[in-house]
């Protein structure tokens, strides 16, 4: 693997002290909307540099500028001391800049091999595309990066989100870039050590990395410096060793930030069951029994691929159950479709909001009202006044600014898209929430909003089942946590036993079933 990651410095660069990247006064507007203004920072050879900020602060625009997707209106960029102004993504890659996007750029209908070979497929002696050669080369690439368990011939859409994320990252790294741009690279990874090992080898070879993540613990682990963006401007580049988390949050929001975690209450006992499953099996779930009480938040933790995804998708009517039962309000139900789940009172928030949650080409308010159009219509015509009242109410509930409602939802930041998606679920009249990693890739302020929404929903008689890749999030949010391993419940933790050490032990298949 080290050979695959090793790379020479560019010709003529030996001994030079130039920055790999320098950004000076970058600005970009879309009509009257200013995306970024006066953004400046630099990256040293072998440095992993953090780019921090709330959703909508301008991080995605900087990624697009570096990747050749958009051109800045003003400002300058240099790469290895030379002017850098890529006309398109192909030019960016040719110059040595490679990006792994948070919203994956893989083509789901193509195979893993076809995605890895893009934009030029392997060709045989006759000059025709050779599927066999493409798969052979892709298999070698996957093996070099510890992903030999992924078959190069399978369609990308059949992979789990975590596997897609790894392929996205691997494809970017395999191009041997001078600058690697990583946008929320661990958002879907329960265990990020695979990526950390790759970054250690890359930076040892002199590659610079721009690292965007809302997980400050891993930012501190990887990065020496970070640049904070707020409202499209670079506020300051700081030494991360010299500033506390609270100071970073204050720089991000311009005031003292709300805590990222709600205080956890004393575990609840003897609650009437809202919904649950008994000896449920389907997909990678072998045999799971769990119950969620009314007024309770139950967490689910587990390493990648242990059955949690299929458990949630069975509750959402997306994956068929082989055996066992699902019960809602004490009655056995058959959730054969998302419509059946919604009719039973279950509101589902999926892991991939852009492909499974929202319609990117529609307006935000339209996305939010889709499940309730029948209730908003009179004689088959939508009552626009009733629609606006309903949307405004839910937007306020999830702290979504009214100025975003008439915009195409695809133009919103990931955090605002997630607020709209949760608002839509609440608007549907769901009595119970099933949330798969609901804060993936959102900023600290949006996380606080989502925590508040979940707690208020539950306090009003609802119930919630929440999976998260962040154990600290579960510990501070849920009343108790179920850990899955090998498609079964490995154990449960609550009260004084609800700790990261306890959850990690259970997730690894160790420890007794202690509450």
TrEMBL record:
Q: Which Gene3D superfamilies match?
A: P-loop containing nucleotide triphosphate hydrolases
One Pfam family linked to the record: ABC_tran
* SUPFAM superfamilies noted in UniProt: P-loop containing nucleoside triphosphate hydrolases
Name the chain's protein: Ribose transport system ATP-binding protein
Q: Which UniProt keywords apply?
A: ATP-binding, Cell inner membrane, Cell membrane, Membrane, Nucleotide-binding, Repeat, Sugar transport, Translocase, Transport
Recorded GO MF terms? ATP binding; ATP hydrolysis activity
Read off the InterPro entries from this record.
AAA+_ATPase (IPR003593), ABC_carbohydrate_import_ATPase (IPR050107), ABC_transporter-like_ATP-bd (IPR003439), ABC_transporter-like_CS (IPR017871), P-loop_NTPase (IPR027417)
- Annotated ABC transporter domain ranges read 21-256, 269-511
Matching SMART domains: AAA (SM00382)
Organism from which the protein derives = Paraburkholderia rhizosphaerae
């Amino acid at each position: 693997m080290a050979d695959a990651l090793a790379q020479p410095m560019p010709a003529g660069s030996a001994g030079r002290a130039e920055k790999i990247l320098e950004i000076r006064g970058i600005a970009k507007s879309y009509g009257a909307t200013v995306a970024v203004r006066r953004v400046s920072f630099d990256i040293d050879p072998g440095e992993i540099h953090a780019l921090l900020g709330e959703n909508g602060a301008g991080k995605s625009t900087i990624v697009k500028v570096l990747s050749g997707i958009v051109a800045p209106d003003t400002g300058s960029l240099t790469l290895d001391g030379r002017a850098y102004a890529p006309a398109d993504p192909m030019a960016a890659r040719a110059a040595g800049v490679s990006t792994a996007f948070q919203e994956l750029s893989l083509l789901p209908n193509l195979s893993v091999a076809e995605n890895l070979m893009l934009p030029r497929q392997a060709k045989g002696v006759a000059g025709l595309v050779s599927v066999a050669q493409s798969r052979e080369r892709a298999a070698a690439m996957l093996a070099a990066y510890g992903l030999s368990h992924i078959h190069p011939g399978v369609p990308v859409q059949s992979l789990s989100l975590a596997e897609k994320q790894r392929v996205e990252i691997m494809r970017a790294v395999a191009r041997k870039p001078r600058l690697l741009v990583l946008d929320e690279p661990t958002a879907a990874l329960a265990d990020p050590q695979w990526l950390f090992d790759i970054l250690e080898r890359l930076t040892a070879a002199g590659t610079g990395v721009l690292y965007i993540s809302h997980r400050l613990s891993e930012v501190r682990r990887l990065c020496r410096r970070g640049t904070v963006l707020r409202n499209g401007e670079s506020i300051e580049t700081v030494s991360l060793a010299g500033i506390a988390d609270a100071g970073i949050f204050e720089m991000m929001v311009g005031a003292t930030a709300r805590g990222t975690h709600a205080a956890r209450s004393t575990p609840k006992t003897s609650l009437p069951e809202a919904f649950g499953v008994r000896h449920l099996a389907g997909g990678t779930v072998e045999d799971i029994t769990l119950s969620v009480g009314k007024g309770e938040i139950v967490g689910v933790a587990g390493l990648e691929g242990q059955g949690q995804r299929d458990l949630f998708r069975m509750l959402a009517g997306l994956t068929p159950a082989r055996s066992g039962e699902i019960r809602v309000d004490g009655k056995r139900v058959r959730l054969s479709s998302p419509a059946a789940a919604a009719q039973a009172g279950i509101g589902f928030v999926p892991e991939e909001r852009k492909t499974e949650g929202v319609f990117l080409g529609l307006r935000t308010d339209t996305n939010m009202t889709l499940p309730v159009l029948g209730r908003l219509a009179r004689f088959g015509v939508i009552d626009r006044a009733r629609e606006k009242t309903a949307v405004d109410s839910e937007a306020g509930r999830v702290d979504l600014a009214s100025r975003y409602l008439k915009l195409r939802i695809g133009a919103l930041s990931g955090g605002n898209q997630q607020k709209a998606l949760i608002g839509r679920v609440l608007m549907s009249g769901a009595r119970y929430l099933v949330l798969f990693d609901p804060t993936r890739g959102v900023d600290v302020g949006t996380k606080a909003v989502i925590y508040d929404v979940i707690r208020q929903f539950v306090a009003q008689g609802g119930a919630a089942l929440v999976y998260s890749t962040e154990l600290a999030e579960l510990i501070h949010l849920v009343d108790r946590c179920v850990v899955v391993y090998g498609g079964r419940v490995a154990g449960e933790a609550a009260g004084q036993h609800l700790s990261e050490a306890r959850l990690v032990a259970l997730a690894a298949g160790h420890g007794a079933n202690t509450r």
